[in-house]
Amino acid sequence: MEIASLSFKEAAAAAPQDLASKLGADPSKGLTDEEAERRREASGRNEIGHQRKTAGEIFLRQLTSPFIYLLGVAAAVAFATGEHFDASMIVLFTAINTGLGFYQEFRAEKAVELLMKYWRQNTHALRGGKTRLIDSSELVPGDIVHLQAGDKVPADVRFLSVTDLSIDESILTGESVDVYKDTGAMAKAPGEYFEATNVGFSGTSVLTGEGTAVVFATGKHAALGEIAKLTSEAKATSAFEKEIAGFSSFIMKLVVVTIAFMFGLNLVLKGTGQLQELLLFSIALTVGVIPEALPVVSTVSLSRGAIRLARRKVVVKRLSAIDDLGSIDILCTDKTGTITKNELVVADVLAVDKDACLRYALLASSFIGEHEKQQNNAFDVALWEKAGEAVRDEAGKAEKLGELPFDPVRRRNSVLLRSAERGTVLVSRGSPDEVLKLCTNVKDMEGLSRYRVEQGLAGNRVIAVTVRWGVPEGTDLKNEEHNLELVGLLSFQDPLKESAKEAAEKAKRLGVQIKILTGDSKEVAGAVAYKIGIIPDPHAVLTGADLETLSVEDRHRAVHETHVFARMNPKQKFTVLSLLQETKAVGFLGEGFNDAPGLKMANVGLAVEGASDIAREAADVILLNPSLNVIFDGVEEGRRTFANTIKYLKVTLASNFGNFYSVAIASLLVNYLPMLPLQILLLNLLSDFPMITIATDSVDASELRDPKKYDARHIIIFTTILGLVSSIFDFTTFAVFRLFSPAVLQTSWFMVSVLTELVLIYSLRTSGPFYKAPPPPAHLATLTACAAIAAVVLPYSSFGHKVFHFVTPRPLHLLIAVLIVAVYFIATETVKLWLYRAGERAADAMHKK
Fold it and tell me: In this structure, what DSSP letter does residue 159 have?
């Protein structure tokens, strides 16, 4: 008989005997080894199938980038012209870029492999009538397994018998409260993991008690297998890397087409007599226009940001994630551990005698007879913290005579105790819906209902505490749970972190929308979001089940308009992230292995230090301090690195494009080269020399206000217009100095080109007037001064004469050059301010629409 894995919905709704029959399972004897082997051949081993990529494949993928092609051509050209230093620097930049990309992707591939560890364990299984310890990877549907406290659930199982069995499912559902399991068939098939009270899911942990279960799904068919499939399918997307690649591709095409056109035109006008010189000239122009220092500027800027974040206890695993973090429009996060403290506290006591209510609640806890806290029940820990020393001492001295553990069907637990004053007392506590039905002294049911509604709207959980005196010893306690006396109601909450509200306000200032994606209840999620100001109405919450019922169009609208999603399973979280990423840059903060797909596919994946190792491996950023505040510190840092990278691009491209087109066109107007190849390469070296330090430049406060994107169209238009300004002054230089000798033109144009590019740095450091910009760092000012001095001094030196063929400038020539540079700076500053104001007006007009 062919046995197939079942879904958790089918398994939860089936009666135990029917399920055993479907799976061909024998609860008393288990499977034979032969039958287990036959099933394993049919269904596969109980492990994740993952096609691993070799390190070589990952490395080769890093080389398929337009920017790598561009730098490769530049390096080859530099070697061909004897500029070994330039060539070596380009190769170094390329190696850094490729190495970082390889490391990032190689690490990401390890994320899926880590899921395998959740199966690497031994499990007690019934085989041939005997319980044996077997490797969990050998389990098959129909196996009978025994689980106890401390075990990990090895596959998806349906419980056949349980004794006080509770399981931590937070790693799967995101809900921090322990889940007690039962064995009865559910009246209707559960829609979500958290509803399946008789099912154990692979990878979750047994906290208390023990149970026997039948395996109904293994490997890729189990809950963990489905998450692994989503994780392997998720594609990490870095907006930074994607936009830089597209931008580099555009620059490469533009340069190649222009150079080919100018080279051909020069050959037509001048013939082949200067072929070699023209070829070297074209190669030098190519090297001169390529922003080859971009990788190192980005890396230095990002590394500096990573160091600054490390001081705030944020570990950045993928450097480009800092830039991506600065560009996010939306941060999706769970509430537990980041917005709330992930620890229950007693929020309120509704009782005539509050101390008595606390005392009886604690007497029914796991602390009876003990003086040290047990960490397996969040409610009991909260009670222990709330109770005073006298109450704790009384609880420690109490004698337990009998107990009914918490049952998810009865939704309460009961304990029979001996009291020195009044004999025996039965204490029952649990869900008010169930416990109040058993009470005889409830007079104000409406008042109790209002209290419970108020506490529910506040996101708090409520339990009722009751007692009954004189219950005989040795009786069946289930028959004694009647005629109970209500002592009071206790309200529990997971308190907000002190920094949560401040972080939400900071997110608004930075233009980042926080969205909560949690496995917790709708009421709790809505109350938390309302308290910190994410939503104006605590009822404005959408559940995962509600989301799935929407049409495609409504689902797209809902993910943008809704900011709190409750009872979310991994697939639903994945769906929300996918839809948001169609138009927005998204950061995702997760901690369980159920979050691995989202962490891998988000533009930036973030995990807290205490997250599961699969979540930490899949994440780009690890928060050693689990606070939203540090995330927004990272957002600001990302915007700083973005601003400095854009500065480099704008300064380099504006000056390079201007010189590129001016020198290329000028070469058509005279029968000699307006600047020699070596002079062009020296110009490129001197102007790039201080540009590398732009990575550490200070940034205007205005640059931190909104999410930033690489807008190639804006950069090209901006740099083209400033390039035209540069070209006007280049042609002015050409027109003035061509009246003298070719050597005077070449020398003077060289000096003007270097100095204009250096002063352009100080203009484009800010979008406002240059004198209002933050003071430049000392190293930027120093290197700029050194480059300017070198550009002026070299033409006066014998080294400059012999190597670069400069001639000594006359005082008049130097005065004219300085005058051209000064007027250029004024013109550039004027045009820059006009461009930024025009951009602001256009943005305001778009916003009004």
Answer: E
